[in-house]
Amino acid sequence: MDFILIAVAVLGAIGLIAALVLYVCSKKFAVYEDPRIAQVTEQLPGANCGGCGFAGCGGLADALVKGADAGSIDGLKCPVGGAEVMGKVADLLGMAIANGEPMVAVVRCNGTCEMRPKIAEYSGLRTCAAMNSCGAGETACGFGCLGCGDCVAACQFDAIHMNPETGLPEVDEEKCTSCGACVKACPRHIIELRKKGPKGRRVFVSCVNKDKGPVAMKACKAACIGCGKCEKECNFGAITIEGNVSYIDFNKCRICRKCVSVCPTKAIHDVNFPTPAPAPKPKEAAAPKAEAPKAEAPKAAPAPKAEAAAPAAAEKNVEPEVKKEEKA
Fold first, then answer.
1. Which of 133, 140, 174 is nearest to 157 (CA)?
2. C-beta of residue 172 within 8 angstroms of C-beta of residue 164
């Protein structure tokens, strides 16, 4: 019995000493965490998508609190929560935040199955990363979409899908949160985050092919050939040509769409613009009206001929002669 009591006492003493040691260590090596970090984390959507540039929502919350202490949270934003969530976070931290323009993912490739036919067949791991590491892929274009759907797998919001007819990914603007996951997943960098634009209207070059014009056209009929017509047409300096391909700066573009009409390969796309009304048909020239026949004025009666007047005059001359004979 004594051994049991001694064992219990010894174990209790060891536990007490260990507890004291842990308590002292926790106080001495404690790391202070601002309670505002937990409050900000509660306001964030909790998607942990990494679109903000941090590993998760906790990292963004920590950066926001530190930025507030430094006096500015500019450049920090949650693409999933958008302006509404960032407004709540700014109010919580007592900061003012500029309302940024909404962004959306844009697929800059128009190499459909019709425009960019296959010249080879890939047999292997069906991912864009694996196919890209093997070479140009199944078409002659070494810059365009590979069509395996790595961007679809990376999207946590079901905002991008592959179109089986074109073989290209399509973005659902209503679901896209501009988190940038699809941008990071694309090995050829054909997906870009651009400003959504007023009423969702925007203009962009749907090509990233940097080959020279003839080579690019041979690989894809819808490729940009770097001819420079769009650059000359733009009055706002929004279009530049680098590496044989045009690029439209969405911060300078005024969506006048003049560049769209001059592009010879239709590589520049305009999105969500109203369909122009068909041009009115030219009016046909009216047939000349037939002139109504003019009513003829009644002809005047012909004047009596001089011959008719002669007998009357002869009668007048005869009468006096007859009277003279009677007197005789």
1. 174
2. no
Asked whether the beta carbons of 111 and 141 are under 8 A apart, the reply is: yes
Closest CA relative to residue 192, chosen from 183, 202, 184: 183
All domains in the chain, ordered by first residue: 32-100 (no CATH), 103-271 (3.30.70.20)
Q: Residues 225-234: contacts with CB within 8 Å, 24+ apart?
A: 225/264, 225/265, 225/267, 227/264, 229/259, 229/262, 229/263, 229/264, 230/205, 230/259, 230/262, 230/263, 230/268, 233/258, 233/259, 233/262, 234/258, 234/259
pTM value surpassing 0.90: no
- CA-to-CA dists, residue 5 to 11, 19, 101, 146, 237, angstroms: 10, 21, 73, 75, 89
pLDDT computed for residue 15 by the predictor: 92
Mean pLDDT by 10 residues, the chain (328 residues): 83 93 88 87 89 89 90 86 88 80 93 91 92 88 94 94 95 92 94 93 95 93 95 95 95 94 95 77 57 53 48 45 42
- Predicted local confidence at residue 317, as pLDDT: 47
How many CA atoms, within 13 angstroms, populate the side-chain half-sphere of residue 316?
Answer: 4
DSSP letter string over 174-204?
TT-----HHHHH-TT--EEEEE--GGG-EEE
Beta bridge partners of 103: 195
Name the β-bridge partners of 183.
Answer: none
- 11/14 Cα distance (integer angstroms): 5
